[in-house]
Structures are given as C-alpha cells and as structure tokens.
C-alpha cells in the first residue's frame, strides 16, 4: 500500500508544470530567479551547487532528474556544479528533464556572445580560492585566456545547435535575449502567468 501511494505521488510530481532555465551562468540567471520569486513562484537558484550535483546523482541512479527538489520548487535556474578541479553544466540534462517531466517549460536565456565571455572572465566569486577563469585555466591546462574563451564559445554554439535540433518546432522552449526590452512580457506569455515587471532588473552584473 505504501509503495502504491509513493508511486502515485511520484507520478503527480512529474506532471507538474515546472519551469527550467537552461541558459549558462552569467546570462541573467539571478535576475530571472528574483523575478519569479518576487512574482510568487517557488524558485531555486544554484543552491551552492547542490541542485546540479543532485541532478547528476539522480541521473546516475536512474531517478527523476529533479527528485529532491521537484516537490518544493517550480522554477530552477543556474544549473552549475563545480569543485576545485571540475566544472559541470546541469543544463546539459534538458533532454532527460523534458522526457521525465512532460509538462515542463524551458527557457534558454542568453546574451551577446562577447559580452557573455567577458562577464565570465570577470566573475569574481571564488570556490577553493579560484574564480571561474582560474578554474578553467586548470581544467584546460592553459594560461591563455583566448583559448578559454574559444572553448566557452564553442561549447555554447554547439549547445544552441543541439537545442534547435532537439526542440525543433515544439512549443515548450523559449529562446530569449536578457536584454530584450519585452523580456518580462514575452516570458509571461510563454508561461501563461503574469510576472511583475517592477521586479525585473539585472543583478550580479560583470
């Protein structure tokens, strides 16, 4: 009986209309999180890397990707996990999320390429006394910033091509520039809920 109730709960949770922000870090994820949170949504942002770490642990254990968070939150953003020698992008799991949560909506938030690359380079937050740039110097075994920028650019361009191929003409993905003057309006239409434009602004800018 308990197992039957558990299975029913799991099925119900996976039917939720979740909103998953699958843009890279430094593309307004904090601002998007605050917009949703201030508009009454249960939103989780990064959670000090624990969110993405849990997502990959779930994937390896054949569990629903967002299990452990999907019963508490509706919106998920800044899907990054890092150690002193590893960088992990949780947005790469969008296929599994879409397959496991069929009512989920996806937001690919982006910004102009050069501005994004510079923002990542300037990001001052540290883990184990390393910034994002310093960590990637170690990962890529280079001190050449241009090599790192090229790696980030290639990763993003490949990711964008994969998104187009996977989602095709589906209606559950919104691709939007965070500098779009109608950002809140377009996002509200996409999720079919009113977001308060008074709570939109770019935070943690670099």
UniProtKB/TrEMBL annotation:
InterPro entries: P-loop_NTPase, Sulfotransfer_4. Gene3D superfamilies: P-loop containing nucleotide triphosphate hydrolases (3.40.50.300). Pfam families: Sulfotransfer_4. This is Sulfotransferase family protein. It comes from Paraglaciecola algarum. The lineage of its organism: Bacteria, Pseudomonadati, Pseudomonadota, Gammaproteobacteria, Alteromonadales.
